Amino acid sequence: MTATNRIAPWLVSCKLMPEPPHLCTLTAMRYNRLDLNLLPALRALLVEKNVTRAGDSLHVTQSAMSGILARLREFFNDPLIVPVGRRMELTPLAESLVGRVNDLLVQVDSTLASRPEFIPETSHRHFSVVASDYTVVVLLTEVLRQLNTEAPGVTVEIRQPSDFTGADLEAGELDFHISPVGLLLEDHPSEVLFEDTFHAVVARDNKEVGDALTIEQYLAQGHVAFQQNGLPLFERWFAKTHGTRRREVTVSHFGLLPHLVASTNRVATLHTRLAVRACEQQEVRMVRLDFDVPRFVNLLQWHRYRDMDPGSIWLREKIIACARAMPLLPLV
Fold first, then answer.
1. Alpha helix locations (H) across 49-91?
2. What is the DSSP letter of 237?
3. What single-letter DSSP state applies at residue 28?
4. What's the N-to-C CA distance of the chain in angstroms?
5. Domain at 30-113: CATH code
6. How far apart are CA 59 and CA 52, in angstroms?
7. Matching CATH topology for 126-187+300-324 and 198-294?
8. Closest by CA position to 75, among listed 53, 52, 101
9. What is the pLDDT of residue 101?
10. Is there a contact between 221 and 246 (Cβ–Cβ < 8 Å)?
11. Total-model pTM
12. The domain at 126-187+300-324 falls in which architecture?
């Protein structure tokens, strides 16, 4: 669910009308002459910059959304969205409203969703988390195992990282984002979960590679690499520091890397915690990287307006506790 396709329940709790262009049949709830039922539509228009797409995101007809835009233009005495060449762009006033309108809706949603306490044994709350396959394997598997017994009614949706993750967190459509340093939003709280390093993984019977790889030896190998929604941090760092390497196979799931190394002379580079598991389950072995590689630091982030939400506090403390209990990195 994206940042624009949810109508806040405090604003619209009635059946949408396709015609005439009003969001609902209730008497308008006004504040300083503005119908507050129009705020979700305003956010959709500011995000989409397009009447048709904004209407689709709220399941409102194009003519209805055009009427809503006309009412908003009248209230603000500003066109809000204007054509620039073949594109539609926001006016300066509309640009200034983007963050404030979003914050307002998230604050109200968070306020109405808050409860004086969170009882995990009886709660039926739903949480959404963005995390990579790697994080799910090394951390969230244990978190979910504990939730199964401690909070049997709680449900969790795990999403893959995407270009929309930051916008979804900002819009309150996401409870938690687990990600490396540098990929989180600056204006929201976060907590370090754990660190990791990197090791190469080769087939157990690979005779061409010893216990360690120098940078020259590493560059001479054929590699199985991971890529999804752009280059991962290791790939970006390596390209900037050492240039390109020979990527013979590229996949979109971390878990496939050791499978595609076994019984070949190729090399895969994995987070050390994942490499340890791979060696236990596949016919592969770990190889030390005999050159400097930055440590991997994973953080947990949540929206600032949910900082004091009892349910959010409970789950993030559970995630942090499981991270603290992770085994120490092996000295290989």
1. 51-58, 62-76
2. H
3. P
4. 43
5. 1.10.10.10
6. 10
7. yes
8. 101
9. 84
10. yes
11. 0.69
12. 3-Layer(aba) Sandwich (3.40)
- H helices of 61-180, where? 62-76, 92-113, 133-135, 141-150, 165-170
**Burial category of 301 from C-beta neighbours within 10 Å (exposed 0-12, middle 13-18, buried 19 and up):** buried
DSSP for 184-217, please give it: S-TTS-EEEEEEE-EEEEEETT-SS--SEE-HHH
Element (H, E) at 126: strand 126-130
Per-residue model confidence (pLDDT) at position 32: 54
H-type alpha helices, 198-289 = 215-220, 233-242, 257-261, 272-281
Using only C-alpha atoms, the chain has a radius of gyration, in whole angstroms, of 25
Average pLDDT rounded to a whole number, residues 163-188 = 90
Element (H, E) at 224: strand 222-226
Burial-class residue 149 by CB neighbours within 10 Å (0-12, 13-18, 19+): exposed
Cβ–Cβ < 8 Å for 8, 112 = no
Integer Cα distance of 209 and 197 in angstroms: 20
What is the residue extent of each domain of the chain? 30-113, 126-187+300-324, 198-294
Confidence of residue 200 (pLDDT cuts 50, 70, 90): very high
Whole-number pLDDT of residue 303: 93
- Strand 284-289 versus strand 212-213 pairing type: parallel
Neighbours of 172 (CB within 10 A): 22
| Digit-coded pLDDT (tens) for 75-107 | 889 999 998 888 889 998 989 888 888 788 877
CATH number of 198-294: 3.40.190.10
**Whole-angstrom Cα distance, residue 187 to residue 310?**
21
